[in-house]
Specification:
mainly alpha
Length: 50
């Protein structure tokens, strides 16, 4: 069951990438921006701590 879900998820991502490349780029951009902001916040926290 788990393997089928993974295959289905990969198939959806590939289909979405081929059907809407701009949408996929926006999603990845949003994810990377989130993690970049999170990383900056952690660094700022430790800078203020010391």
């Amino acid at each position: 069951m788990k393997k089928a879900l993974i295959i289905l998820l990969v198939a959806f991502v590939v289909y979405f990438l081929l059907a809407e490349p701009d949408g996929m780029a926006d999603i990845f951009s949003t994810i990377f921006d989130f993690f970049g902001d999170l990383f900056d916040a952690i660094i700022l926290f430790f800078e203020e701590l010391f």
